[in-house]
Amino acid sequence: MTHRIALNFEDGVTRFIEARPDELVADAAYRLGLNIPMDCRDGACGTCKCHCESGRYTLGSFIDDAMTDEEAEQGYVLTCQMKAQSDCVINIPASSSLCKVKPSSLPATVAEIRQLSLSTIGFSLAVAGEPLSYLPGQYVNVSVPGTTQTRSYSFSSMSRDGAVEFLVRNIPGGLMSSYLAKRAAPGDGLTITGPVGSFYLREVKRPLLFLAGGTGLAPFLAMLDELKNIGSDQPIHMIYGVTSDADLVETDKLTAFAAQIAGFTYSTIVADPASGHDRKGYVTNHMPDAVLHGGDVDLYLCGPPPMVDAVRTHLAERGVVPKSFHFEKFSPSEGK
Questions:
Q1: Rounded to an integer, what is the distance from CA 295 to the centroid of its chain?
Q2: Is it the case that residue 40 has pLDDT exceeding 90?
Q3: What would the pLDDT profile of 94-147 be if each residue is shown by its tens digit?
Q4: 101, 242, 308, 312: which has the fewest Cβ within 10 Å?
Q5: Element of type H or E holding 283
């Protein structure tokens, strides 16, 4: 039996390793050619100190100069003394290049293209070989067939039968969106590189609030896909805001998740004043006190920069400080 360990490096690159319950995490990493910084192997120097965000483990001996008992209580570990007893997520305070780690590049083929609306395209890729590992919310760089360029897209599903899904804003003249709308066909080959990104679902310990703007919905679909599989005993609410009625997509999936995940609810908002939608305006106009839980909430936000800035200002004006606040800014023009 082995446990899956996600090693998140400070530049956003993530690599997964498998470790036996009786194997030191540092040894498991080295076995796969990943050089976690280390100057000793006996818990004395502290060079391999990292933070374990989730998972169960045991620790061997160490001295205060390497890591204090208080740090250990906060989830810090010495990988030279750590043995995983479940799947874990570990933050490595070093760049992937320093540790001689390169993001994985994998061949993939286009499996399906879906025109979800005039403004949004969904597509899925088939990845050969072992199941692709990533944390829900992360992204990959996708090569654009016929060019030397790539575009970054968050997974909008967890890997299932070797297939992964994405959402793309359909921008006239956009490199990837033009390919998908006009030339793409099932079986087309391309390359994905990653996974990358520090925006991902952490261990659920308290209520969750998801704020999605436009195609910023994508990483939340992956998170909900994961929550459907692992379950949760915490309330989860999503506020999904778009510019126009045509931008409101994948609500059928959200409705299905609401039936499959206990405690999950969602609301949708359209900014266009001419829309006939029940809720018009911006996400900040429809954020009731109940979903903020007095600050006892983990807040995840993915949307364009003005939305991220507006939410931060709004929370400050209301005097609400979430227990944790994870956000990812994106510009549709950069990912077209």
A1: 22
A2: no
A3: 888 877 787 788 999 999 999 999 999 999 999 987 778 999 999 999 999 999
A4: 312
A5: none
Q: Given 3-state DSSP classes, what are the helix, strand and coil percentages for the chain, each rounded to the nearest 5?
A: 25, 35, 45
Q: Is 131 exposed, middle or buried (0-12, 13-18, 19+ CB in 10 A)?
A: exposed
Strand order in 324-329's β-sheet? 264-270, 236-242, 208-213, 298-303, 324-329
As a whole number of angstroms, the distance between CA 239 and CA 83 comes to: 39
Contact 261, 242 (CB under 8 A): no
Question: Each residue of 139-193: pLDDT tens digit?
Answer: 999 999 999 999 999 999 999 989 999 999 999 899 999 999 999 999 999 999 9
Which run of H or of E encompasses 115? strand 104-115
Q: What are phi and psi of 132, to 5 degrees?
A: -70, 130
Q: Which CATH class is domain 104-196?
A: mainly beta
Place of tokens 């446990």: 3
CATH of 3-92, one of 1.10.10.10, 3.80.10.10, 3.40.50.2000, 3.10.20.30: 3.10.20.30
Residue 335: strand, helix, or coil: coil
